[in-house]
Amino acid sequence: MVNYQDRLGRTFAALGDPTRRAILVQLERKDGATVSELAKPFAIKLPAVMKHLDVLNDAGLVTRSKSGRTVTVRLRPRQMREAMEWLRRYERFWSGRLDRLAAYAESKENEARAKGR
Amino acid sequence: MTSVTLVRRIRARPEIVFDAVTTTEGIAHWWCPDEGPVLSSECEARVGGRYRVRFRLLDDSEHENSGEFLEIVRPELVVMSMSWKDGVPDPGESRVEIRFRTVAEGTEITVTHSQLHDERSRSSHTEGWTGALRRLEAYCAG
Question: Which residues does chain A have within 8 Å of residue B139's beta carbon, measured at their own beta carbons?
Answer without folding.
Answer: 28, 75, 77
